[in-house]
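Researcher: Re-running this chain for the archive, since the previous output was lost when a drive failed. Same request as before.
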Amino acid sequence: MKIWKSTSLILASALLLAGCSSSATATPEPTEEAFATVEHVYGTTVIPAEPQRIVALYDSNPDPVLALGIAPVGVSKTGYGVVDENGLPPWTGAAFAELGVEPNVFDDTDGLDFEAINDAAPDLILAPNSGMTEEEYQRLSEIAPTVPYKETAYATTWKEEMEVTAKALGREADGEAIIAETQAVIDAELAKYPALEGKTAAFCWIDPSDLSVVYIYLPLDPRAGFLEEIGLELPQELKSLAEEGDFAVTLSSENIDMLNSVDIIVCYGEDSIIEELQANPVINTVPAVRNGSIVPISSTSELYMGTYVTVLSIPAVIDQYIGLLGEAAAKAEQ
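Model: Regenerated structure tokens:
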């Protein structure tokens, strides 16, 4: 894995489903002396000096900090998917190891551990991809300047997450370079699978034991949004079922034919889910099911967390993910 280290970093030797609120806080007004200012859902956070001790909360937010070559002094435990002995995704743990730092992990899967966060003595708390409430923001801001999500909870893209992190740390040029290199990795993988061009896709939750409804994630959800980013759009007729701000829509079995315009179905489940769906005479009328153009995401696969894309997870899993999508696209053409 490549960890980014800018010249300024080396010289400084620094280590370091969903709603939205628009209310502002009594955050101090930015001044000319401020190191950085970041606007977000609850107002503006002023960062008075270059941060030296960063806490990154919630699952994905440690990754852009680590990608900049900075080891956070505290991070959140990941409560699901494939994790290492510290409760972190493999790519996050590997980044800490490359920096030679043992991670300080908060067991906050059932709620933020404010005492542990305070004990880490941060001078900046980052959570640009999160569902941080205003109350949590206020309490964390008493510990250190805090950066929550910008507009909509849990809807921050991997690029936005990197941009906000880089801005808060005063390393925007490095952030842009990381985004460009990550995009190049994605593009190189896409080029291997021309069958993906022009295909449609849906990221779904399907329970083979109860096919009365199918849950379809919308592009506001980063998992579905990434599919659109790589050119696999969700058909407009499915998008039209949503209201503004929806992360998902439900499709009843009576309207299962609306999935007929989907070439590739990505869904959680073991490999056996393909045969289970094909065995059902109703959902097997959907061409993507009948053709086996399905990408199952198992909870024991790195893709389970990898579909929540970050600048570290993308290089770690993109070859596997695009490869499976490419195989599904080829089946759609049969």
